[in-house]
Fold this sequence. Notes:
By secondary structure, the chain is of the alpha+beta class.
Amino acid sequence: MNIRRATRTLATAGLLLACLLPVAQAQRVYDSGGRQLGRVDAERYYDASGRSIGRVDGHTVYDASGRQLGRIDGERVYDSSGRQIGRIDGERLYSASGTAMGRIEGERIYDASGRQIGRTEGLRRMQAIIYFFFFM
Length: 136
């Protein structure tokens, strides 16, 4: 009888612990039709099939094979050669020449004409910006 009681107590404690622990939030990116484009796990980026497409180390962005794609330095976005390719101004995203490229409003991603081109789920703002400039 003691073994049954111990097993039941352990199962109850495990259930309570599972209910109290925070659930890891999915970090996913979808296109405007709701199809999954990819996901982000910490600083690693994956396509919809789960294959690695890149990672971030500090401010530097790399592809899946480890080649540098570029970096983000404050409000400026640079390619691997150090040429500026974009600028971040709040929620608005611009090319290096100042042309509007899109905006990120909450979980929604829009192109320059205001059409929704994607949606994020659980991504931090900078993760969405990195996805927009380097993986979309």
